[in-house]
Predict the 3D structure of the following.
Amino acid sequence: MRARALTSRRVAAWLAAAATLVLPIARCVQAAGSGPSAGAVSARVTRPLRTRNVILVTVDGLRIQELFTGMDPIVAQKEKRSGIYDLERTRKRFWRDTPEERRAALLPYFWGTLAPQGIVLGDKWKGSSVHPKNPLLFSAPGYMEILTGQYQPDVVSNDVKRYPHSTVLEFVRRELGLGRRQVATIGSWEGFATLSSSEEGAFFTNAGYERIPADMATARMAWLGDLQFEIMALWEEGRSDAVTFNLAVEYLKTQRPRLLYIALGESDDWAHARRYDRLLDYINVFDAYLKTLWETVQSLDGYSGRTTLIVTTDHGRGITPADWVEHDEGIEGSADIWIAVIGPDTPDRGEVAPYPTVHQADVAATLLRFFGLNPGAFNAEAGPPIPAALQADSAP
Ligand SMILES: [Zn+2]
C-alpha cells in the first residue's frame, strides 16, 4: 500500500464515480434467504454448515497475471523496465514454457494443494471475471468494499482514518456474541485497523508498527514485536509482512479467533518499486505463508476441517511494461481481481471458469454465509454471496 498524494486525480475519480452509479449486473440468481429482498430479515440462516471459523487473507494489488499465469512475459522481457536485477536467476526460478507450469512454479502450494480444495475465480482469459464496484482502484476503497459489502463513495484516499460504515468483522462479533479477541485484524499497514471497524476497540487489532500487548504476548510475539523495528521494510508506511504473518499464526494458535483477518501488503510495495524479480520472490513467499497457515489450521482442534479460508486482493494493476507498477482509475488492468475460497463447505472445483462476473462487494456476504448469518441483516446494500463458494448454493 503506497499512500501517494493524488488528490486531484482522486477527486476526479470520485466525480466520475458519482456519474456512473448504475452498474451493469451480470451474475447468478441471488442465493435464497439472503440479500436486500429478504424484507424483515433474520440475522440467521438455518442451513447447517461445517464451517466454524473463517480466515480472510488479503494480499495487496496481486495481479491476475501472476496468480493465473505466473511470471508475465510481457513485463519480464523488458529488463530495464521490469527492474529485474538478475534475469537468469529469475527465469531459473519462475520461467516455464506454459502458463500452467509458470503459476505452479510461482505458487506451488496455492495451485497444488489449496485450489483443488475450493474455488478460484477471476481468470478472465477463461471467462471468469472479478471486479471491484468502486471505480477508484486503490487500496482503501477496495478494502472498504471487501469489509462492508459495497462501494463506499466517501472513501477517496488512503489516509488513515475511521469511517462510520459497519464491517463484517463487527457484525460477526456482535451476532455471534464473541469475545473481543475472538475477532481480529492483523495487518502490515496501520490503516487496516481503522478500515476494519467503525468503532475503535470493537475487537482486537494489531496493524502497522505495533506490539502485541504484554498481557497476551507469547515470547515469540514479543520477539516479533522487537524485530519489526529492525527489519527495514521497503516503504515507511508498513512493517514487514513476515512480522504480520507470523504474529497472525501465533495469534491463531494462542487466542483461537473465530474470524481472523490477515492483511498483507508487500506485493504492492515491490511492484511500486518496479522490481519484478522481488515481486515474484515475494509471491513465492506468500505461497509459503498460505502453506504454513493452512497446515496450522489443520493441526488445531476446532479448526481442522472446520475452517474456511478466503483469499483476495484489493485491486489489480497495469498490464504494460510501463504501467504494471501502478494502479488507479484509468490504468487498464486495475479492475481485474480474483478471489479464492477454500474450506469444508465449498465445492472442490479449483478454477471455476467460465463463470458469471462477481464483485469485490460480494466478499462480505460470502463470508457471512459461512457463519450462517444473513447478509441482508448486515447490509441491505451488500453484494450477494458468491453461489460457487458454497456447496449449498451452487448448482449441482
Ligand atoms: Zn498501490
